[in-house]
Design a protein that fits this description.
A middle domain of Talin 1; 363 residues; globular; 2% strand; single chain; mainly alpha
């Protein structure tokens, strides 16, 4: 299946997308060019999904999910910092909006899709409650420390951290994320492997021929290139998105939601593909791992970036957002505890995701 990788379109699309990115970067692009950039963006997303699955196939789970989650998040962080530098005071809440959107997209949108598809295929979606529960607890803690507490602290005016508080949140986020990665990949790796009817799935049965190291390294390089193109092209089309948002009378935070959706599209497709292969656990690993990486890597980088960034950094969520986050944590906990989910569980998460999108457009 992978032997002819060098002749596949997935080798050429990232290169073409990179060319489009170079030609359009830093320029004001008209409507026709925006359409071309959007086509290149979609192609880069599809190529990224393909190469991520090749790498995941080679390294096995849970490392495969970790590769895609970290790769996407690292480049997403670079996009956030770039937009904050160029956005001035208008971008004060960009990090908060994008990170919160990533959490809601992953913990409700991707989570719900994976459970829905898994339940449609086998009536009940089966996963490992121990590993998924540990991941959910980490996400809830990171989100509370970084996005909820700033609304209630009093050392700085408004929903902001003081310098010392931001430093603590950054160190705590990075430490928690590092601890989770160690648990996921070393000490309790079995808790994050696909399960079926209570037993671990044999990875050799769920995949075809394992790609060689050379093919995996080529795909890793193409994955990084494709993800750079995804985030860069999203940045290129963001002015058009901002204009469309303003024309539609939507709040500025809607821009962060749209950008988060674009950036997380590769992970969404990869998670759905895993669920279609009856590997619900891999899809959940991708969803919660992405939410965790979005917070655990973004907050430390933003904390360092504030050294040279001027203007306020708004991290605290509003009342509506906190209600959605709290409801997400409660519902996710009730979903995860049994280790089995039905169509109803998937539908509830997708309803929460729909509520998030609606309220982001109509607060």
């Amino acid at each position: 299946m992978i032997a002819a990788l060098t002749t596949k379109w997935t080798m050429y699309v990232p290169i073409l997308a990179a060319l489009v990115l170079v030609l359009s970067w830093g320029r004001s692009v008209p409507g026709l060019i925006v359409a071309l950039v959007s086509v290149a963006l979609v192609g880069a997303v599809l190529a990224a999904v393909y190469h991520a699955e090749v790498v995941a196939h080679r390294v096995g789970e849970p490392y495969g999910s970790l590769v895609l989650a970290v790769a996407v998040t690292v480049i997403e962080v670079a996009l956030i910092v770039t937009m904050m530098i160029s956005g001035g005071d208008k971008a004060a809440s960009l990090a908060r909006d994008t990170v919160f959107a990533a959490v809601m997209i992953t913990c409700n949108g991707i989570f719900g899709l994976v459970l829905l598809i898994g339940a449609l295929r086998r009536r009940v979606a089966v996963f490992n409650a121990e590993g998924t529960g540990a991941a959910l607890a980490t996400v809830a803690t990171l989100a509370t420390l970084s996005l909820v507490l700033p609304t209630f602290t009093t050392s700085a005016p408004g929903p902001e951290f003081s310098s010392a508080q931001l430093a603590f949140a950054a160190v705590a986020s990075l430490a928690l994320y590092g601890l989770f990665v160690m648990v996921q990949t070393v000490r309790h790796r079995d808790d994050f492997l696909p399960v079926e009817d209570g037993g671990a799935v044999d990875e050799s049965d769920t995949h075809g021929h394992v790609p060689s190291t050379r093919i995996a390294l080529i795909s890793l390089g193409m994955l990084v290139l494709a993800l750079v193109c995804v985030v860069g092209l999203a940045k290129v089309v963001s002015p058009a998105l901002e204009s469309a948002v303003a024309s539609a009378g939507l709040p500025q935070s809607a821009v962060g939601v749209v950008i988060a959706m674009l950036v997380l599209l590769p992970e969404t497709i990869a998670a759905v593909n895993s669920a279609r292969r009856n590997q619900v656990q891999i899809g959940l690993n991708l969803a919660l791992g992405s939410a965790m990486a979005s917070i655990g890597l973004t907050i430390p980088v933003i904390a360092i970036a504030t050294i040279w960034l001027s203007g306020p950094l708004v991290l605290g969520l509003g009342a509506t957002q906190m209600v959605l986050l709290a409801l997400t944590v409660v519902v996710s906990t009730l979903t995860v505890v049994p280790g089995r989910a039905t169509l109803l569980h998937g539908g509830v998460h997708l309803a929460l995701f729909a509520a998030f999108v609606f309220l982001a457009a109509s607060p």
